[in-house]
Amino acid sequence: MLVTDNSQIIKSIAKDLGFQYCGIAKAEFLEEEAPRLESWLNKNYHGKMAYMANHFDKRLDPTKLVEGAKSVVSLLYSYYPSEDLANDGTYKIAKYAYGKDYHFVIKDKLRDFMMRIHEEIGEVGGRAFVDSAPVMERQWAAKSGLGWLGKNSLLLNKQRGSFFFLAELIIDLPLAPDGPVKDYCGTCTKCIDACPTDAIVGNQVIDASKCISYLTIELKEEIPTEFSGKMQDWMFGCDICQDVCPWNRFSQPHHEPEFLPHDELKNMKKNEWEELTKEVFNEVFRKSAVKRAKFEGLKRNIQFLEKD
């Protein structure tokens, strides 16, 4: 079968499974990214995320992750909610964590995707990834034409903004690659100006050790006092740089029932969060990404915010 025919089959399967966008790139060494990644690590912008320094070669070369890899298929799955729960007057959770943990939801879809490829194309080797291995997913999505990297380093799509989960199939099937698109950020600096902790230190360069998402999720120690008064009530993750991005005025609500928030999550007030018990935490966040912070971590975050 022709390479272009197989590419169309892949894109058709992606659409059937509910992915809003699908792009293809040739599996090859990310030459431009190597010095950028090295510089970022050398400046310790990864904070306490020691794992970011591991598997340097695999991060940059998909053929080291999947033997015989020929193509990287990048997929976008929207999580933009119909209702923003990050109101003033309550503690805030990033939109991606409102419903069921995306790792479970997307992984199931990727399993179905690989099965469909085997049924419709034949025996194809490869692996599926959703934020689960050293894959530079935003760079691959940009390389395959699904958008460009904004100044906040997130992938921006001209039609639908940035509230997407990213996933990849790295497979040994040659496919017709899509070209990258141009950068449409221009002179806009809204994300840089809005970041209360000054975590965006250059174009597409984030000092993760200052990022509210890092401080509330990845950091296991006490949050440094220098961030007191700067967290703007975010207790798990942060959407500030996305919320102010002009391209996100085109965001459209998702249609994924699994991403709908627990009813209690919609109505919790500050005093209720401050009195949160482990039982309520386990109920509201039963299959949620918030479990990553653990009950103790979320309580730590809330207590830090209480002092503001």
Based on CA atoms alone, the radius of gyration comes out at: 20 Å
Taken in chain order, the helices and strands follow as: HEHHEEHEHEEEHEEHEHHHHH
Q: Helix count, per DSSP?
A: 12
Content of β-strand: 5-15%
Provide the domain count. 2
- What's the total number of strands? 10
Binding site for cob(II)alamin: 59, 131, 152, 155, 166, 213, 238-239
Pathway: tRNA modification; tRNA-queuosine biosynthesis
Main location: cytoplasm
Organism: Marivirga aurantiaca
Question: Could you characterize what this model shows?
Answer:
Pathway: tRNA modification; tRNA-queuosine biosynthesis. It is found in: Cytoplasm. InterPro entries: 4Fe4S_Fe-S-bd, 4Fe4S_Fe_S_CS, QueG, QueG_DUF1730. Monomer. GO terms for molecular function: 4 iron, 4 sulfur cluster binding; cobalamin binding; epoxyqueuosine reductase activity; metal ion binding. With 308 residues, the chain is of the alpha+beta class. It folds into 2 domains: 3-171, no CATH class; 190-249 and 262-306, no CATH class. Helices cover 33% and strands 13% of the residues. It contains 12 helices and 10 strands. It has helices at residues 3-16, 33-42, 56-60, 102-120, 137-143, 190-194, 212-218, 240-243, 263-267, 270-274, 278-284, 294-306; strands spanning 21-26, 71-78, 92-93, 126-129, 148-149, 155-156, 164-171, 200-202, 205-206, 234-236. The strands form 4 sheets. The chain has a 4-stranded antiparallel sheet, sandwiched between helices. The chain has a two-stranded parallel sheet with strand order 3-10. Strand 8 (200-202) and strand 9 form a beta hairpin. The longest helix has 19 residues, at 102-120. The radius of gyration is 20 Å and the shape is globular. The model has no long low-confidence stretch (mean pLDDT 95).
